[in-house]
Amino acid sequence: SNSIDSIWSKPDDSKNVDALSIFGVSQCYPLLLSAYEVLSDSEFTKLLRDCVIISFRYNVIGGLNPNIMEDVYNKAAIKIAKNEVSTSREIFNDLKSIYVTDENFKSAFSTKIINSKRYRKLVRYILFCLEKQISGNSYDDSDTKITIEHILPENASDIWNKYFNVDEQDIYTYRLGNYTLLEDGKNKDCGDKLYEEKLPIYETSRYSITKEYCIFEEWTPASLRKRQDKLANFASSIWKINY
Predict the structure, then answer these.
(1) Count of CB atoms within 10 A of residue 94's CB?
(2) Does the predicted TM-score (pTM) go above 0.85?
(3) CB burial class (10 A; 0-12, 13-18, 19+) of residue 30?
(4) What is the pLDDT of residue 4?
(5) 5-34, pLDDT tens digit by residue?
(6) Which of 189, 185, 214, 184 minimizes the C-alpha distance to 199?
(7) Which terminus, N or C, of the chain has the lesser number of Cβ atoms within 10 Å?
(8) Could you give the 3-state DSSP secondary structure of residue 164?
């Protein structure tokens, strides 16, 4: 399915379909096509949003078995087709088994590694959602002037070995806690400088995820983990279903 299709004509729907595409998740499409025939527009929009949240928790962060998810969605789709359910809340009751709990989600998020080379759009999506939650500001995630900054640089120079040994660099470079948003020019200024040289640049950034949540005495595995734990708390309130 494609967000340009007439089915996804509402901007919110289109954005959520784009998110599913970024996640590489398609198991929920039969359910959504079933629901589109039956649900009111507003209930369909809620269900689509629920599918994004479930997919983010289950697939993107949890890395759980997609076959189990497919089975749950298919059973729910059959109930919709039989007119046994007609609201997003009723449908969510049939999807609860694949909604990862806050505790498990935070735990998985706080250690998550996503390679920004392979999954650049996904890393940007996560950072932009976190920024919106922290600052209340929405930015266009296709804006190339906004870049992904690696606090511990990719291919860090030897001066970083004092803070992250070579093995730790392999482990931590692509952890979610090592990423932040930065203006293009400021990112270039940072280069692969040491953290204490980057810090004054971070403090002038317009992005709260950077100017408020990248401020530590030094950047070490411990401070990176601490930051990722904080981001996990924000994440659990962004990707959350409340009924």
Answers:
(1) 19
(2) yes
(3) middle
(4) 42
(5) 666 677 789 899 999 999 999 999 999 999
(6) 214
(7) C
(8) coil
